[in-house]
Design brief:
The chain has 575 residues and is α+β, with helices and mostly antiparallel strands. It has 3 domains: 131 residues, Periplasmic binding protein-like II (D-Maltodextrin-Binding Protein, domain 2), CATH 3.40.190.10; 129 residues, Dipeptide-binding Protein, Domain 1 (Dipeptide-binding Protein, domain 1), CATH 3.90.76.10; 237 residues, Dipeptide-binding Protein, domain 3. The chain is built from 17 helices and 20 strands. The strands form 5 sheets. A 10-stranded mixed beta sheet has the order 8-9-10-1-11-18-12-17-15-16, with helices on both faces. The chain is globular, with a radius of gyration of 26 Å.
Length: 575
């Protein structure tokens, strides 16, 4: 597969090079008489237009209540058209955006109370406007939080919303929240993505269950970002234009077009033909980036790899009602066995071209915390003999024909692994399956089409395992917390899609959510990772890297978390 990809890439590059070599050059002197000095008129500057290519189309532009937004790259348009109170920057730290500053204990805007409650006060920058010219105020934040906390409207972040007990508008630029308990990530403003009250309140009062489908959150989006949506042609592109009243000043580009290109070869051909100026993660295989970077050397065109901050891992179905086979991955020993049967280094190699470090937990080897907790992380090196031993303990034996069968009833071990569609998804699943087949499992691969990947019930009721991704702090606040389990009672909207439940892990999660002292937090991280990884609750694969391709003269693109390189879209420019 990689060889075919390189061959296709070489052919595309050869055509591009041939086209450049055959292009006619202008005659010397521009056609003037020999020796004549002709004055050179200054050409007027044309419009600064930028075309961005992404792999998948978003299902909406609000990541709290639009469930089709994932780490597959379809979050990239969010911060072109919108801004948040705070955003995560290239170095994974949080910085204020719409907020005048982050909440702070030192400044008195983040107060921990003796009774274990908490109060936070956000100050909004002055002169922020919605794209229709209406001022953005604290009333918009109160409306948005009211909608997100409404039990009739599914959301992805129930844990933090439950902790925000009440809120009030102090003045148009000041918004205060009272918390029922301490929440150490309150300074990220999670749960406070603004929605325009003046455009959505009427529907919320009369037809609130359809709020997630409001076109104001989709193809008629009205936001606070540097570029405003003009049109959205489903399956093709989004077209945005500069918002002249942007609070940080007039944005540099005249227009931005986001093109949805669900094929890597088409993406590469488009950037080589310069019909697309920038390709953003996730879209281009890292193996292809190596070739393009080598061939572009000296041209000024840019090909680089940026850390996305996301762990790619195998999510395991922990619900006995859905998990198949019975006594399969719902059994701890079986989970440990398949952890040993997963060759992470090879999965990283075929998926990320060797750029991405293999993972043994949700702590990146590149982070400062990893050195502190490494000794507490249970290890599952690739070891088929140990995997077979654990499977035997759980009542699964590999017969002489190689098939893994249940000693009690003779059932075969047949399991499905899913992944959303994307570059290299088939190679990644096949590599995982190779190890699992080696211990006798019958593995069915399922590349989920985009239409189904946005169906919350389908995403939750998978029968075996699925490859997905999350950023570091989601694991101890949301993904592994039993009170966030997605199910019919919350319309499949909780962030704990695997239904993992572990009382000890919950205790660590709850303490991490209220402990601010760094030394105390390290001890809690050690305890939680030992508990969860000892339970083999998930199978870590690698820390995702994202490929960025950009033509000469384009500036401002930086790394990101969750494949949202557009967090600093206002800074992007081109010569």
């Amino acid at each position: 597969m990689i060889g075919r990809l390189r061959g296709a890439l070489a052919a595309l590059l050869a055509v591009a090079t041939l086209g450049s070599a055959c292009a006619p050059s202008a005659p010397a002197g521009g056609g003037a008489a020999v020796g004549a000095e002709q004055p050179q008129a200054q050409a007027p500057r044309g419009p600064k237009n930028l075309a961005i290519g992404i792999l998948r189309e978003p299902q909406g532009l609000n990541e709290i209540i639009n469930f089709g937004l994932t780490t597959s790259g379809n979050k990239q348009p969010l911060l072109i058209a919108h801004n948040y109170l705070a955003v995560r920057s290239a170095d994974q730290t949080w910085i204020p955006q719409l907020a005048a500053e982050l909440i702070s204990i030192e400044r008195g805007t983040w107060r921990v109370n003796p009774d274990g409650t908490m109060d936070t006060t956000w100050k909004i920058r002055p002169n922020v406007k919605w794209h229709d010219g209406t001022p953005f105020t604290a009333d918009d934040l109160l409306f948005s939080l009211t909608v997100y906390k409404d039990p009739d409207i599914p959301n992805n972040i129930g844990n933090i919303l439950r902790a925000m007990e009440s809120a009030q508008v102090v003045d148009p630029q000041t918004f205060a929240i009272h918390w029922s308990r301490i929440f150490v990530t309150a300074n990220t403003a999670q749960g406070l993505i603004p929605m325009p009250r003046h455009l959505m309140e009427q529907q919320y009062r009369t037809d609130k269950t359809n709020v997630p489908n409001n076109p104001i959150l989709g193809n008629q989006f009205v936001g606070l970002g540097p570029y405003k949506l003009v049109s959205w042609e489903s399956g093709v592109s989004m077209n945005l234009t500069r918002f002249d009243d942007y609070f940080l000043g007039r944005p540099p580009l005249d227009t931005v077009t986001v093109k949805f290109v669900p094929d890597q070869n088409v993406m590469i051909a488009s950037v080589l033909a310069e019909s697309i100026d920038v390709l953003l993660p996730l879209g281009v295989d890292l193996d292809a980036v190596t070739d393009i970077k080598r061939r572009w050397e000296g041209t000024g065109n840019q090909a680089f790899v940026a850390d996305t901050g996301a762990l790619r891992y195998i999510m395991i179905q922990h619900r006995p009602d859905y998990g198949r086979p019975a006594n399969g991955l719902t059994n701890r020993a079986v989970r440990q066995a398949f952890s040993h049967a997963t060759e992470r280094a090879t999965v990283s190699e075929v998926s990320q071209g060797g750029f991405a470090p293999a993972a043994d937990s949700w702590f990146s080897p590149n982070s400062a915390l990893y050195a502190e907790v490494r000794a507490s992380i249970p290890q599952y090196p690739y070891d088929l003999a140990r995997a077979r031993q654990l499977l035997s303990q759980a009542g699964w034996n590999q017969a002489t024909d190689g098939e893994l069968t249940n000693a009690a009833n003779g059932d075969r071990f047949e399991i499905e692994i899913r992944s959303s569609s994307g570059v290299g998804a088939d190679r990644m699943l096949n590599t995982i399956a190779d190890g699992w087949k080696a211990v006798g499992a019958q593995v069915n691969l399922n590349i989920v089409p985009a239409a189904l990947s946005s169906d919350p019930e389908y995403r939750v009721t998978f029968p075996g395992a699925q490859v997905t991704g999350n950023i570091f702090d989601m694991f101890f606040t949301d993904v592994l917390y039993s009170k966030n389990i997605a199910g019919p009672e919350n319309r499949w909207g909780g962030p704990n899609r695997s239904a993992y439940s572990n009382a000890a892990a919950d205790t660590f999660s709850e303490k991490l959510a209220v402990t601010i002292d760094p030394a105390e937090r390290i001890a809690l991280h050690k305890g939680m990772v030992a508990q969860v990884m000892g339970d083999a609750a998930l199978v870590p694969l690698f820390f995702e890297q994202g490929a960025v391709l950009a033509l000469k003269g384009i500036t401002g693109i930086r790394g990101s978390a969750e494949n949202m390189n557009t967090w600093n879209m206002f800074e992007w420019n081109r010569d």
